[in-house]
Amino acid sequence: MRRRGPFVVLGVVGFIALGAVVRGGGKFDSADAIRARFPDPDAAAASADYIGSAECEDCHEDRGKSLRASFHASLAPGEAGAGRACQQCHGPGRAHADEAGDGPIRNPGKVPAREIDGACLRCHLPVLAAPVRGHREWVAGPAGEVRSCVQCHRIHVDRAAKEFDDALGPFVKVEDLAKVAVHVPGARCIECHPGFHPRMDRSGHRDLRGGDAACGTCHGPGSLHAASGGDPKKIVHPGRQSPPAVADSCNRCHGSTAALARWTCSEHAKEGTSCVVCHDANGPEGKTLRGSEFALCGSCHLDVKARFLLPNRHRVAEGRMGCTNCHDPHGNTGKVRDKDLRTRACLECHGEKGGPFLYDHGIKRTEGCVACHDPHGGPNRRMLAYPDTRSLCLSCHAETFHDLGDAKYRNCLSCHIEIHGSDLDRRFLR
């Protein structure tokens, strides 16, 4: 489908369907019927109520400049053929000018929708081509409510500046989009995004497609997005949202789960990590992670990822275990799944090292396994913190009666073999 240019979007599209505001009628009103529904708000104004077109710019020079760069440049003050100029939209300016700017003037964003729509129809009434999808429902609104054209379109839109290439957006909060748009059926979304249909069918969010909000539960109401032909600025993209905004969206449904209950004080929450950094909302149910734990966690924790590639390591890179075997990404009890990593986290796999022993190695209860071992990996055998056991033991037991110059004392484990604990000897002898 050929894309329509910006002149059509801002100068024509907004009122193509104003002639089609027939709830349930399925056809256009006549021009007279449209005018009756949206009367000219200045029809009763006298010629004396208007001022010269250049007087507006005496006080509003910046607005005059922006109007000249816009699609409504023909209405700019002082332009040939401008006629009423600014007063076409803002209404007669005599009282406003005479009262030094304090007199009444129409602010398109603050007057009733029917009034500003009537002003716009002075120029756009003849545009009665085929309706733009969604505009009938949008303009008429629920329960007969009339919406204003300026909810979607701005008058002073700079056609040259990229930041003003559209009337609204980008939206980064669902609640902001909900102020100016309404929900559309999920089937409407699938028409343009067929690739997400099979993915959603396999996901844990498949039930949302049939709900009142449908895709809009996460992406916001889609009427503006649909009416604009898929403008990405008129829909919420979780990847553009701030982490708190993403969390607000997710918590609408997941806030009562045990994982999210722990999220508030978690390390990831403190660092401003967004849910969608790790999770794909359209991923298969129970498999929403965007990659393997090694790749996903390692994309941020590069130092830890590097240690998992050292000669002696836990087999995370090979998929034999994952980061979540020890760490809870949603937890609020410190950096690991169990606050007492020093005993329990390691002992889930290495239970034989935990005892209970009659004579336990006390450092396990104070510093834990990490006092001697690097849990992610290292260059030393058994992931020890030192290259040899004597150096490791002497880091705590510097005072010893052994003659360390004697070769037989080079390896402490030659005698103290039950190093994790013993039921026979307090010195962990064999």
Question: Which keywords apply here?
Answer:
single chain; 430 residues; mainly alpha; 4 domains; two-stranded antiparallel sheet; two-stranded antiparallel ribbon; disordered N terminus
Description:
This protein is mainly α and 430 residues long. The protein folds into four domains: 6-164, no CATH class; 174-240, no CATH class; 243-325, no CATH class; 356-422, no CATH class. It contains 22 helices and four strands. It has helices spanning 6-16, 31-37, 55-59, 61-68, 87-90, 94-98, 113-124, 135-140, 174-178, 186-192, 196-202, 216-219, 223-227, 243-254, 258-261, 267-270, 275-278, 293-298, 302-307, 341-347, 363-366, 389-394, and strands at residues 312-313, 359-360, 377-378, 421-422. Strands 1-3 form a two-stranded antiparallel sheet. It is elongated. The chain starts with 5 loop residues before the first helix and ends in an 8-residue tail after the last strand.
Question: Helices, strands, pairings?
Answer:
Elements: H1 6-16, H2 31-37, H3 55-59, H4 61-68, H5 87-90, H6 94-98, H7 113-124, H8 135-140, H9 174-178, H10 186-192, H11 196-202, H12 216-219, H13 223-227, H14 243-254, H15 258-261, H16 267-270, H17 275-278, H18 293-298, H19 302-307, E1 312-313, H20 341-347, E2 359-360, H21 363-366, E3 377-378, H22 389-394, E4 421-422
Antiparallel strand pairs: 1-3, 2-4
